[in-house]
Each structure stands twice: as C-alpha cells, then as structure tokens.
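Quick log. Single chain, no ligands specified.
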Amino acid sequence: MMLALHGFDAYGLEISETAVKKAETYAAAELENPSAYHFGGETNRPDSAGSVTFFQGDFFSSKWDYEGGIEETTRFDVAYDYTVSRFIFIM
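-> predicted structure:
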C-alpha cells in the first residue's frame, strides 16, 4: 500500500480471502485520502499514486489466482515477504 502511495505499482499476495478483502478496502480508502504517516512527515508527496492489486494465493506455491492484469510470466523488480522480513530480489 505504502509503495503505491509513493508512485509504484504494488501487488499483495495473501492466503486468506478475508484478509484480501480487508486489504482492498483499506487500500481504496488510503489511496483516496492518504494518512500522513505514510510519508514520514514529509510534506512533498508524489504527484500521482501508483496502483495496488491484491490477490489470493499461497506464497509457497506457484499456483496463484492471478488478477489485475498480471500473467504467470510477469517478473517483479523486488519482492518482500513481511512474515519473515526478508527481501527476495528477482532478476
């Protein structure tokens, strides 16, 4: 979510359908009227936000329910797993 507010296109993967729905609701509200804490006290905000798309799937499986216009062959610049706080760089 915060990456989208800073102009990046972001995707969220979650195994729980309920969590995906809550994340979509939260993201829609924050994109419409962002909270100041997303910007670390900075007064300069990007001219436009990026997009945020959530989809349901198991991180440890390659069979995800792809939505939001991405394909199985889509490559990402960086992936971050919040649960174990690790970065995975994809080339």
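The longest strand covers residues 10-14.
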